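lol ok so funny story. i was supposed to be doing the assay writeup but got distracted and ended up predicting the structure for this chain instead. priorities right. anyway since i did it might as well share w the group, maybe its usefull for someone
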Amino acid sequence: MAEHTLTALALTCSLKPSPAPSSTDKMARQVLDELAGHGVRGDLVRVVDHDVRPGVEKDMGGGDEWPAIRDRVLAADILLLATPTWVGHPSSVAQRVMERLDAELSETDDEGRLLTWGKVAVVAVVGNEDGAHKIIADCFQALNDVGFTIPANGGTYWNNEAMNPKDYLDLEQTPDAVASTNRKLAANAAHLARLLKQDQYPPAG
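and the output, tada:
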């Protein structure tokens, strides 16, 4: 058993509200299952089920449900941002999550560190069109900008062949390359999160 118990939160950014089946949820749950093998307890939030208001503040008021989600993000050691591909870009829900995380740039601990320092972020993308590499790159940059640390092989994805409407949910089995990438992502994310939990970044200068 791992010396330190770790936790992970998957924010899935499907445009489909629950209980509709979601390829993004499927991929995210597969990654959480892999993380569980490394002593990481995981949970999932489908963001579209919540009233997350537009803006870049911690709390946009008027019934904004982001503050409760934010509390769960900050309580987790690993954040998984999972998004479908829409016209070559992350979903609008994923974009809103990244916009709301911008508020973390103004939040620090007593030693000047962002509250996200020492936390790991990984990204999962599914889509029946191209664009996953660009989406992962954009999400990595946004997550790193607001303080998260990205592990080696911290992105996983599935793209169907061009002009083919099949979804990830429709696959009878997970392709070997995707399953292998999920395993590497989980192993590296858990390893990095455990190291950071034992030895936090130094105080900000």
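The mean pLDDT is 95. The chain has one domain: 6-198.
back to the writeup now i swear
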